[in-house]
Design goal:
- The protein contains 4 helices and 5 strands; from the N terminus they run βαααββββα.
- By secondary structure, the protein is of the alpha+beta class.
- It has a single domain, classed as YaeB-like fold, CATH 3.30.2310.
- The chain has a 5-stranded mixed β-sheet.
- α1 runs antiparallel to α2.
- It is globular and about 30 Å long.
């Protein structure tokens, strides 16, 4: 999969240094993946959820949430939001 854009992960990690390693792991796994559907994603990340058009990953247990849009037919992952759990729960990212 082609992940667009890693910059969002790096910027979040500057503010939350404890996210560096888990986001890096997610990025390396996603980049090498060949996901064709949410079923495939859940083979790697069983707790990934579909919320509207977005796939939401729990990062570092439940400390962070990574919200992405996956275009399976083109092999693209668009990073929309990287949030703390508290920011995610507020729901402002859905607007």
């Amino acid at each position: 999969m082609h992940v667009i854009s890693r910059k969002a992960l790096r910027e979040f990690a500057v503010r939350h240094p404890d996210a560096v390693v888990p986001l890096g792991i997610w990025y390396r796994i996603a980049r090498k993946a060949a996901w064709k559907s949410l079923v495939g994603v859940r083979k790697t990340y069983p707790h990934a959820d579909l919320v509207g058009p977005y796939t939401v990953f729990n990062i570092k247990g439940n400390a962070f949430r990574l919200v992405v849009k996956i275009e399976y037919e083109f092999g693209l992952i668009f990073i929309k939001h990287v949030l703390t759990h508290a920011e995610y729960v507020k729901g402002a990212w859905k607007k």
